[in-house]
Write a structure and sequence with these properties.
The chain is an alpha/beta fold. 34% of the residues lie in helices and 30% in strands. It folds into two domains: 176 residues, no CATH class; 117 residues, GMP Synthetase, Chain A, domain 3 (2-Layer Sandwich).
């Protein structure tokens, strides 16, 4: 046998070995984790996993299988996660893990602990959407045992809320968290969101929540109740300009076809709501409109950078509807 033929056989053997290793590591025998739920108590960490075990590749977004829930506890987050993973039928894959639920009982502690974990583990993503959930892992596990479709409904609620949920990597500027709750035996989304900042957790009213989502450009459609009249916005354009020592916020809305045309008085009330929301978020420790950056772009290094440690600057809003 010639040297060329021997080399070809050797290369073929190496290729077959590589294919074998690849198929062994990327087979269908994996538990696909779709969502991660964290809860910190004074005694321990609780972790729950929403997962699927389909007969499809672990990276297939079309994989069809029932959603199930398992949980684990531990003195540290890492231990609790390891315990939860031991309850999976096969080793976990986090490629499709797009949602992170944090229990409302200890949001700041849970967020502070999970961010390093997501940075250290290559299989967890900082692009994960973050939501708050009122029931603890124990209650969720009990409901999953009572009702077979409960885990699937919980995951569907997260999917429906995804466009209004922030990414984990946005933590630095504060997180406006949708709140998932159990109400009258069903999974619902609380109308009021929670604002999680470096200084604490703050509740927003229903109106402030909707306006904050407009200012953060979360979602496409928003509804405001102004003077007992529902006004539904289908699309919005936001503009912020530094004006003297203050700022001007320009909101241009396109209302939904079936929605009524707002009056001048209703527009003024929306402007007042915008200013109130910006000031409330500022006092909570979040520059929701990045006013500091807007002023820095105008002034360069001539003035000190504006942060939420300073008093909230004057903000004037201008609301206009097209058509």
């Amino acid at each position: 046998m010639s040297r060329r033929a021997t080399l070809r056989l050797l290369l073929l053997g190496l290729l077959l070995c590589w294919c074998g290793v690849f198929l062994r590591s990327e087979n269908t025998e994996k538990s696909i984790v779709r969502a991660l739920l964290l809860e910190q108590t004074p005694e321990q960490w609780n972790v729950a996993l929403l997962y699927q075990f389909p007969e499809a590749a672990a990276d297939s977004s079309d994989a069809a299988a029932s959603v199930q829930l398992c949980a684990g506890t531990g003195e540290t987050l890492e231990q609790a996660l390891f315990t939860a993973e031991e309850h999976l039928p096969q080793r976990p894959s986090y490629r499709l893990c797009e949602y992170l639920f944090l229990n409302t009982g200890s949001l700041r502690g849970e967020l502070s602990a999970c961010e390093p974990l997501f940075c250290e583990r290559a299989d967890l993503r900082l692009a994960t959407r973050v939501l708050a959930v009122t029931p603890g892992c124990e209650e969720l596990l009990a409901r999953a045992e009572e009702e077979e479709r409960f885990p699937e409904q919980l995951l569907q609620c997260a999917k429906d809320t995804a466009e209004c949920a922030p990414h984990l990597y946005e933590r630095g500027k504060g997180l406006l968290l949708p709140v998932v709750q159990l109400k009258e035996g069903s999974i619902t989304l609380q109308k009021e969101a929670l604002l999680l900042t470096e200084t604490g957790t703050f509740s927003l009213t229903e109106e402030e929540t909707e306006m904050a989502r407009v200012l953060l450009e979360y979602g496409q459609e928003h509804t405001f109740i102004v003077e007992e009249t529902p006004i539904t916005i289908r699309r919005s354009v936001l503009g912020v300009q530094a004006a003297g020592d203050g700022f001007t916020v320009q909101l241009t809305f396109q209302k939904k076809a079936a929605s009524v045309t707002p009056t001048e008085t209703q527009c003024r009330k929306l402007e007042a709501l915008c200013v109130e929301t910006v000031q409330h978020c500022w006092d909570a420790g979040t520059d929701i409109l990045s006013l500091g950056s807007v002023r820095a772009l105008r002034d360069g290094r001539k003035t000190a950078f504006l942060t939420t440690k300073n008093a909230c600057p004057a903000v004037q809003a201008d609301v206009m509807f097209l058509g």
